[in-house]
Specification:
With 456 residues, this protein is of the alpha/beta class. It contains 19 helices and ten strands.
Length: 456
């Protein structure tokens, strides 16, 4: 275990390491990536790995912009002037101030933990499939226009024992249809913002009695007197140039976000002068569950299976799946000599891709949205550094099999396997090409036009 990781276990935690492990799923998309380190060499006898097609979410990051940290900064300062902070409030004012300073100038960037996550994934990949990696091999790296994907790619490359023969690629910013396809469909935007989505989110809020949670959390941080006074006076703070009332909801949701993002700063925190305070949870297990379920429902609806496994939230990922198939074809046919393709993108790309491929935790739609967490947990699908890998192997007769991994866990695909988790490439290709065709997405199609017309 690395020293920084050791310090994290000792000092960062949630009071206890067991609490962190037990409640990790409630952190949703903010959760730090975890690999159990287990690897079973299940490569069929007579086969050798020769190519990896990969896409990964950026590593653990800071907030993308000032938000909840600034909101809490204002509320804490006001409460301090009015002597309205509890002991927990005083503690979290210090922790929030530290995070605010730590993020200054680094919003939207990955943290040291995010860099380390990708470094370790690359190291494990190279260790498991050494035939794919060599100084004489050729590798394509794809990033988006967001700095955090380049930082993540650098972390990944640092985990390899060579740096040569790497070709860096990026689509034009106005046509990033492979890795940021979700930004090019007006109808998808309307789907995300629809009243139906809001109604379903409200149903989950009611199911978990979220208002009780908001009040309970607020009362831990601020005195009953100050909360009563703020409510009576309608006390407000300025957020994005608008007066916004201080409410238990604003307090609890801001603290939940700060706490979650802070989990990504374990290495920086362990080196700071405030770590003796511990970044332990300000929430009870029940509160964290309620906040986590409410936080994850939108992801389930607009990035995951939602109410329709073949809905627009899955179709939107067609350009990425098309690219996976086309690039695999070009290598397998000998048109290109590439040993690995490694893409770095965002949660909005990984979850729809997993849904489109019908991977585990992403293959069960439901109209009973209040029960969605029984079928889909964002922590298992799109934590920070989430990834999908296609591992290709072949034998001496050039029979080609492929294994699909979601977050380094082998996946059962929706058809018969050839050998354990390995499937005939021709069968995999046929299944997904037919599925894409039914959506109007063709291997030789213009993906920007497809995205502009999707759902019409």
């Amino acid at each position: 275990m690395k020293l920084n990781s050791f310090l994290f276990v000792l000092f960062f935690g949630f009071g206890t390491t067991l609490f962190a492990q037990k409640n990790q799923l409630w952190f949703g998309t903010k959760a730090a990536y975890h690999s159990d380190g287990k690897y079973i060499n299940d490569i069929p006898r007579g086969y050798e790995p020769f190519f990896i097609n990969h896409v990964g979410r950026h590593g653990s990051r800071y907030m993308t912009k000032a938000g909840a940290d600034s909101v809490l900064f204002k509320i804490f300062n006001l409460a301090k002037l009015q002597n309205g902070l509890t002991n927990q409030g005083k503690k979290w004012q210090k922790l929030n101030n530290w995070l605010l300073g730590q993020q200054n100038g680094k919003y939207a960037e990955i943290t040291a933990l995010g860099y380390e996550q990708h470094h370790d994934i690359a190291g494990r990949m190279q260790s498991h499939y050494p035939n794919v990696f060599s100084k004489n091999g050729h590798y394509d790296i794809w990033i988006t226009n967001k700095l955090r994907t380049k930082q993540s790619a650098n972390g990944f490359v640092s985990g390899l024992n060579f740096k040569n023969n790497l070709k860096w690629n990026q689509q034009p910013e106005n046509a990033e249809t492979m890795l940021r396809f979700y930004d090019y469909s007006p109808i998808y935007d309307s789907f995300v913002d629809s009243s139906l989505q809001k109604a379903k989110e409200d149903s989950v809020a009611s199911f978990v009695n979220i208002n009780e949670v908001y009040n309970s959390v607020a009362q831990k941080i601020f005195s009953a007197q100050i909360l009563k006074y703020w409510k009576k006076q309608g006390t407000s703070i300025v957020i994005k140039n608008k007066l916004t009332k201080i409410t238990p909801k604003l307090i609890a949701t801001s603290l939940y976000e700060v706490y979650g993002v802070g989990l990504s700063t374990s290495i920086e925190f362990s080196k700071s002068n405030v770590w003796p305070l511990n970044w332990n949870s300000p929430f009870s297990e029940g509160e964290l569950q309620a906040l986590g379920k409410l936080d994850g429902v939108e992801d389930f609806m607009v990035k995951g299976p939602g109410m329709d496994l073949n809905g627009i939230q899955a179709e939107i990922a067609a350009p990425l799946l098309v690219n996976f198939i086309n690039t695999s074809d070009s290598i397998l046919s000998g048109k290109k000599n590439i040993n690995g393709i490694f893409r770095f993108t965002h949660a909005e790309a990984i979850a729809p891709m997993a849904t489109l491929m019908e991977l585990s935790q992403s293959n069960h739609a439901t109209t009973h949205i209040s029960e969605y967490f029984d079928y889909w947990q964002p922590y298992t699908v799109i934590p920070m550094t989430a990834n999908i890998q296609w591992i290709f192997v072949k034998n001496k007769t050039d029979n080609i099999l492929v294994k699909v991994l979601l977050n380094e866990t082998p996946q059962k695909l929706p058809f018969k396997s050839e050998n354990g988790f390995y499937y005939s490439w021709s069968l995999v290709r046929k299944y997904y090409v037919e599925k894409l065709s039914k959506m109007g997405a063709h291997l030789d199609g213009d993906m920007k036009i497809f995205l502009q017309n999707i759902g019409k």
